[in-house]
Amino acid sequence: MTTTSETTTPDRAWIADITMTELERNPYQAYERLRREAPLAFVPVLGSYVASTADICREIATSPDFEAVITPAGGRTFGHPAIIGVNGDIHSDLRGMVEPQLQPVEVDRWVDDLVRPIARRYIEAFEADGHADIVTQFAEPVSVRSLGDLLGLQDVSSDKLRQWFGQLSRSFTNAAMTEDGEFANPDGFVEGDVARAEIQAAVDPLIDKWIEEPAETAISHWLHDGMPPGKTRDRQYIYPTIYVYLLGAMQEPGHGIASTLVGLFSEPEQMEEVVDDPTLIPRAVSEGMRWTSPIWSATARISKVPVTIAGVDLPANTPVILSYGSANHDTGVYDAPTRYDIKRPPLPHLAFGAGNHACAGIYYANHVMRIALEELLEAIPNLERNTSTDVEFWGWGFRGPTSLPVTWEV
After folding, report:
1. Are 302 and 66 in contact (CB under 8 A)?
2. Which is nearest to 185 in space by CA: 15, 5, 47?
3. Mean of all residue pLDDT scores within the chain
4. Closest Cα to residue 61, out of 313, 403, 276, 357?
């Protein structure tokens, strides 16, 4: 990925002071100012241009003058060819590899039987206690277990799957760059390397088996579907996309579940409405994904030709990070965007991206979140947030609550 720099004008000198710590703890303040003063700007700590408004993000994501590129930290974490950072025939092949199992007609066939028993099992483990941490005891485990079973990783514990996506997330978002275009914290990739080695050690024997005996698992389909008889895709070719799934696809529903609940807790009347009428849950989830987008700023595009966007001249081969979480707080699109509100007009959001690299698992992820919340609110309708501590969110590339203590009368 090629980086580009620009001379920071005096009135935008503050952009050079943005830090990774600031972005990871709370990116909203910096991005609100970016949207207002410099909606497409070079941010030195990221070594890249950043798009922060809905219009610019959508324009770049759908423009034929741009193609996908993986961020430097993402490329270092996943390797090549990761589905989120390739184009042309390779992208077509990888999308054609993963999409058949994620088509609505296919997902409808199995998603309820897959997710609902998992959600019930985790609820049963704590519902008699009167308290729980919804992030660590429910949202994340339901998310990783559902996708893990879909991939064929039933023998990998949910705790290990959660550990992997945490390690990969921190590696992927180890994005700080020096003025020379080098990683500011090269040791920040070590835990991602450890996770990849553990993943291969667990998955290699399964691939050996599925090559000889195809099974009804996603990874087995990835090996065989669309290939000539007797041929399979090379495992090193599909591993980067496995890592993408074990990070983005595993964390997104879990963090979406938790963020939706935090939002509902902030609006008690709306929480009561959703508990009384579960048909409102999809709307609550959609607003939760807009309010705190799980994949907040983890995708990028690169210009194929010289292009002018929002009055900014970008040479060919200029990368731009698309900050969808910021776009979903754009006051030019949403009234009072910092407020969670299921009654706002159902405008389309960008939590799942846009263009031909939009998330392939939109339908699946929405159903995982819906089913999990249906089961939780049916089993524990008197759920309340434990207000003795604040809810802390973390992450700039991927974002969600780090914990969500709740209580209820048993």
Report:
1. yes
2. 47
3. 95
4. 357
Type of residue at 82: A
User: Per DSSP, what are the bridge partners of residue 95?
Assistant: none
- The full set of domain ranges for the chain reads 78-172+184-295+337-401
User: Phi, psi (5° rounding) for residue 391?
Assistant: -85, 125
d(CA 20, CA 16): 11
Q: What percent of the chain has pLDDT over 70?
A: 98
* 90 Cβ contact list (under 8 Å, min separation 6): 81
Using alpha carbons only, give the angle 113, 116, 119 rounded to the nearest 5 degrees: 145
- CATH fold of 78-172+184-295+337-401, please? Cytochrome p450 (1.10.630)
Q: Please give the angle made by the CA atoms of 399, 402 and 403, to the nearest 5 degrees.
A: 140
Q: What is the 3-state secondary structure (H, E, C) of the chain?
A: CCCCCCCCCHHHHHHHHCCHHHHHHCCHHHHHHHHHHCCEEEEHHHCEEEECCHHHHHHHHHCCCEEEECCHHHHHHHCCCCHHHCCHHHHHHHHHHHCHHHCHHHHHHHHHHHHHHHHHHHHHHHCCCCEEEHHHHHHHHHHHHHHHHHHCCCCCCHHHHHHHHHHHHHHHCCCCECCCCCECCHHHHHHHHHHHHHHHHHHHHHHHHHHHCCCCCHHHHHHHCCCCCCCCCCHHHHHHHHHHHHHHHHHHHHHHHHHHHHHHHCCHHHHHHHHHCHHHHHHHHHHHHHHCCCECCCEEEEECCCEEECCEEECCCCEEEECHHHHCCCCCCCCCCCCCCCCCCCCCCCCCCCHHHCCCCHHHHHHHHHHHHHHHHHHCCCCEECCCCCCCEECCCECEECCCEEECCC
| Closest C-alpha among 27, 24, 13 to residue 323 | 27
Cα–Cα nearest to 94, from 214, 250, 315, 243: 243
In the numeric block, the tokens 């996708």 are attached to 147
Note the pLDDT of residue 346: 79
Using alpha carbons, select from 142, 132, 147, 158 the residue that is nearest to residue 403. 132
**pLDDT tens profile 212-260:** 999 999 999 999 999 999 999 999 999 999 999 999 888 899 999 999 9
